[in-house]
Every structure is written in structure tokens, then in C-alpha cells.
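OP here, attaching both records as promised.
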Amino acid sequence: MEDKGRVRKGYHCAWQIHYHIVFPVKYRKVLLDKGIIEIIKETAMGIQERYEIEIEAMGMDMDHIHVLCTGHPKLSPGQIVRIFKSITAREIFRKRSDIKKELWGGEFWSDGYYVATVGEKANWETVEKYIERQGKPKEELKQIRLF
């Protein structure tokens, strides 16, 4: 991404905050097929327009998703996760009601998640490459070291 070092500006602040967020499908079910991925991508575009969140990269494997994003400092990482998970789950269930049969309790995403901050200079490209390679067969990938 060309402007990864760009300072974002609000009315009363400026920031360079980037989060690497990972959240799994409920019960680690293998449900992220091409149709679901398209719903998630379309929904993410709407989330960007409505909230002060910018999705910088997304990568999906069959049972979890990685998101590299930035958001206004007034939004905690937990709030970003809650917004993303609730809106995408609602849209998935609305457009693909057959998915509910695979899950119990009406939730698409697991309650847990992983979040880390990402620096523009130190490990940005490593994390970005890792996210972009999600879902590719392991034999196509070289070892990716995050630390």
C-alpha cells in the first residue's frame, strides 16, 4: 500500500494507527467460500463509508479472516472488531440464510479475536504479505516470519 505512512487527520487529532486483527468463524467452521468472501468484501466497503475505519488489506482462509486496518483513535480495537463482526454477520445471514444451519446460536463469528498494532517501518510489509497470502496452499508459500 503506497500511503501506509500517511498521517490521517480528524477535526482535533492526527494519527498513524494500524491494527492486524484476526477473527475466526464460530466453531472454526470452514464456511468462508467465494460467495461469503464477496459478501464480506462488499460489506467492508460500506463499513468504511459509515465509520471512521479504513480497511487496508483483508485475507481469508476457510475458517478465519485477517484484517489490516486503521481507525480514528476514538475507536478502540475492540469496537472495530464489534462493528466489523456484527455488520458482516448480519449481511451474511441476510444474503445466505443457508449458513444458519451450519451454526448454533445465530452467531457467525467466534467471540474471540487477535489484535496487534503494526508499525509502518518495522514489520508492516511482513504482516501485509502474510495477510495477502491467506488461503493459498502451504506448498506455494515460503516460510513467513512475523517476529
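Record two, same layout:
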Amino acid sequence: MPHHRHAVTALDAPAAVGPYSHAVRAGGLLFCSGQIPLDPDTGELVGATPGDQARQCLENLRTVCAAAGASLSDAARITVYLTNMAAFAEVNDVYETFFAADPPARVAIGVAALPRNAQVEIDAVVALPDS
């Protein structure tokens, strides 16, 4: 009997900073863990501005999607977590460069704090391509 869920490890993405998988495949969907703006090579937080941090988060998500055989453009829903909602327009400008056409559904949530003092964290639910 096939297993109903499969963990995905993205070797080119930043290492997980806790006991979680980069993503889990289940029922034709890929549930990507939240990505903070970590450099995949150094594991250090990068980006001085929320926009710079959002770009790194999305690049990391792109890498996780690729490890599962999907693309970030296959995202059905994105959640953006911000420690400062005043930065929403700046983050939105960067976000738009990743999803210029046919963007996914999205939620933006203001939070008090994020791991490693990041200003932005982004997760995704991605529709897996038919195999």
C-alpha cells in the first residue's frame, strides 16, 4: 500500500532550523514549510529590508518546489507573515515579480516576531503537476 504522505528534502535550500521537513507531498499537493530569508550556503539571515527578505524567502520556496518536481508558479496559495505590516507595499512589489501573471491566492498576516528575528516568512501550498 502506498504511503499517503511523503516528506521532501530540498538539498539546495537552507537547512531546516527545527524538527520539520522542507515540504510534504500529500493528495496531489505540496505543503511547503515557511521559509525565512536564510542564505542556503551559509544558513545566515540575509536582506536588510523586508523586500530583500521576501525575495530570499521566495527563492528558497522556489528551490523547495523544484525538489518536489513542481514550480513556484504552481502555487495555489501563499501565506506571507510580516513583523511590520507597514512594509506590505514593499513586499508586494517583490512578490509581484515572482507572480506577474495568474498569481495564487494569498494571505498576509502581521505577527509579533519570526524565527531568527526575520522580518518576513513565506509558506506555500502548491498543486503538483500530473505525473
